[in-house]
């Protein structure tokens, strides 16, 4: 078992406050997210997990009325400073959404979309990226003969793996997954969990999940949120076996949430 | 071992089963309304169909008489329209109609799409709230008004800019028609773009796409069928437009081999000549045939729209 406490922190969040208009959605959040490991965010609905996740690739920028205080550094660079180019940040910090959202294009064009955005146009190079990304997302064997088919013809689980492949195609360092399995059946969920396990050797993964068993199964570190605050964060095993906070214990034993 | 049904269950059963017993109770009355309403709808539908077929029949029947005196070859492909000499070649007008429509779409589509993108993606909400109703109002302006504007503003401008003496012709007509169909095409495209699900945009932004890239690589392709629908709707309007065209096209039966040469199209030629022709003349028949041709073209376009709507729903 990998001990995230010993690995270097890739993302440092320091006294982060986020407001939607007047609503205080994240309160004084501080944490470190270790490199090449899986960090899980758990907590009841509406506690701010997705909000925090979206601050990491600045998708919150597009929500009008959002205001941020505090600091987030990735690899030591403050991602909200003026020098940081949002597009480059998002290329480095990929995201997989709750609902599978492949474009209404072919499977190939979905995966090639990101590389094309960033200026790769050579046919051979794209073919290669598409294949390696689909292999990394454990989808290649299932779709290699149908690359020209519409992505919308895939099953939900396949679509989600396609979205993962699409995210991997731009070679990110971090992969954010917001309840990426909640719309899927148990078998697809399992596949994606296995996939996450494989990917964590190469990527830093942050996943939001409603499913505590999932957090316990796949993550190295778990963060428990309540009403926009971090109640507790620790190595997953520790958090689930010996929670320090009473509220954490209540939540993981199913007493509220 | 069936337990006796509870009182509530029994009551539910009875209420489902029976009419209230009265011969003209609520239920019977509702059934009567239902049937009557359905009958009225059917009658209306049949009536509409009858009208459509009568129009087709009427136009077609008179129009077809042309071919007793003029060969189809001559009508469709001859450029000699000299009714005084019994020459009824409609090629000039057919060509004019297609050229005018094509030119209009060539100018109107890119501009409309830009307006739609601007409205749907770029404009701040308050401006959008102003612009959308304004465009919707523009759709309703009578075409003769556009014709006036073309005559008094556009044609003098064209004369100045190009140095020709006339200014009437395909270009002037296409510009007027463009202004006319612009609100229609851009508003419907705007709706199509707005209807593109947010999740596609999110996916593109999350991959590091800029707004420009997202709009042109994801949003517009996803809205493609809606935009094409808007285009065909605008095109149908442009093909059938008469008044605005008559006022700026020059109304001369000569082939439009230049954008600035006065010419004539199917609609404008019909409306200019129909009042002066003897009722039982080949000339009259030929004008009817031209009308019939227009009708068939518009019907085909409407069928195309229907077809595309159905495809749009499937996706
Ligand atoms: N765009 C927004 N504008 C205003 N308030 C928002 C917006 N998005 C989220 N919120 C509020 O911020 C709080 C946190 O929302 P968030 O989506 O981060 O919760 P979550 O932990 O992801 O919940 P869930 O598990 O249901 O996805 C909620 O109270 C929500 O109502
Ligand atoms: Mg959420």
Description of the structure:
Chain A: It is found in: Cell inner membrane. Chain A: One of its GO terms (biological process) is phosphate ion transmembrane transport. The complex is a heterodimer of chains A (257) and B (315). Chain A has 257 residues and is an alpha/beta fold. Chain A has a single domain, classed as P-loop containing nucleotide triphosphate hydrolases (Rossmann fold), CATH 3.40.50. Helix content of chain A is 35%, strand content 26%. Chain A contains ten helices and ten strands. In chain A, strands 6-7-8-3-9-10 form a six-stranded mixed sheet, with helices on both faces. Chain A has a four-stranded antiparallel sheet with strand order 2-1-4-5, with helices on one face. In chain A, α3 crosses α4. Chain A is globular and about 55 Å long. The mean pLDDT of chain A is 90. Chain B is mainly α and 315 residues long. Chain B has a domain of 187 residues: MetI-like (MetI-like fold, Orthogonal Bundle). Chain B has 13 helices and two strands, in the order αααββαααααααααα. Chain B has a two-stranded antiparallel ribbon. In chain B, α7 packs antiparallel against α11, α10 runs antiparallel to α13 and α11 crosses α12. The longest helix of chain B has 39 residues. Chain B is flat, with a radius of gyration of 28 Å. The two termini of chain B are 52 Å apart. The site of adenosine-5'-triphosphate (ATP) has 13 residues of chain A, from β2 and α1. Adenosine-5'-triphosphate binds next to β2 and α1 of chain A.
């Amino acid at each position: 078992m990998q001990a995230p406490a010993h690995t270097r922190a890739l993302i440092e969040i320091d006294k982060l406050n986020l407001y939607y208009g007047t609503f205080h959605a994240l309160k004084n959040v501080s944490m470190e997210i270790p490199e090449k490991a899986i960090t899980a965010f758990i907590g009841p609905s509406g506690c701010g997990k997705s909000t925090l996740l979206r601050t990491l690739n600045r998708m919150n920028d597009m929500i009008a009325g959002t205001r941020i205080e505090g600091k987030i550094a990735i690899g030591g660079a403050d991602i909200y400073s003026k020098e940081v180019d949002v597009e480059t940040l998002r290329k480095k910090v990929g995201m997989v959404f709750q609902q599978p959202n492949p474009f209404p294009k072919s499977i190939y064009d979905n995966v090639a979309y990101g590389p094309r955005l960033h200026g790769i146009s050579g046919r051979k190079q794209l073919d290669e990226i598409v294949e390696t990304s689909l292999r990394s997302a454990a989808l290649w064997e299932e779709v290699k003969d149908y690359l020209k088919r519409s992505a919308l013809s895939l099953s939900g689980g396949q679509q989600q793996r396609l979205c993962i492949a699409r995210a991997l195609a731009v070679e990110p360092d971090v992969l954010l997954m917001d309840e990426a399995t909640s719309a899927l059946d148990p078998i697809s969920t399992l596949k994606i969990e296995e996939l996450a396990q494989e990917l964590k050797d190469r990527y830093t993964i942050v996943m939001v999940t409603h499913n505590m068993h999932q957090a316990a199964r796949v993550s190295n570190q778990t963060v428990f949120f309540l009403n926009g605050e971090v109640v507790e964060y620790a190595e997953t095993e520790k958090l689930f076996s010996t929670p320090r906070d009473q509220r954490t214990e209540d939540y993981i034993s199913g007493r509220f949430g | 071992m069936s337990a006796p049904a509870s009182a509530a269950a029994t009551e539910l059963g009875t209420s489902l089963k029976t009419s209230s017993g009265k011969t003209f109770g609520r239920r019977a009355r509702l059934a009567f309304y239902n049937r009557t309403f359905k009958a009225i709808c059917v009658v209306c539908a049949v009536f509409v169909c009858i009208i459509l077929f009568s129009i087709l029949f009427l136009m077609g029947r008179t129009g077809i008489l042309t071919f007793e005196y003029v060969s189809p070859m001559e009508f469709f492909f001859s450029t000699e329209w000299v009714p005084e000499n019994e020459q009824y070649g409609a090629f000039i007008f057919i060509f004019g109609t297609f050229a005018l429509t094509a030119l209009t779409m060539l100018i109107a589509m890119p501009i409309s799409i830009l307006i739609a993108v601007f409205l749907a993606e770029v404009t701040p909400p308050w401006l959008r709230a102003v612009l959308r109703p304004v465009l919707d109002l523009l759709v309703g302006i009578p075409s003769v008004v556009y014709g006036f504007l073309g005559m008094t503003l556009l044609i003098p401008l064209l004369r100045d800019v190009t140095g020709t003496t006339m200014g009437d012709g395909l270009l002037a007509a296409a510009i007027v028609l463009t202004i006319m169909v612009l609100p229609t095409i851009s508003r419907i495209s705007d709706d199509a773009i707005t209807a593109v699900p947010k999740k596609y945009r999110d996916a593109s932004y999350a991959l590091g796409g800029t707004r420009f890239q997202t709009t042109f690589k994801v949003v517009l392709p996803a809205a493609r069928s809606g935009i094409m629908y808007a285009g065909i709707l605008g095109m149908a309007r442009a093909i059938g437009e008469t008044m605005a065209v008559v006022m700026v096209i020059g109304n001369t039966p000569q082939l439009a081999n230049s954008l600035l040469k006065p010419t004539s199209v199917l609609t404008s030629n019909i409306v200019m000549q129909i009042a002066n022709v003897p009722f039982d003349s080949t000339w009259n028949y030929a004008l009817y045939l031209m009308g019939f041709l227009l009708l068939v073209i518009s019907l085909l376009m409407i069928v195309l729209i229907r077809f595309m709507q159905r495809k749009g729903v499937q996706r």
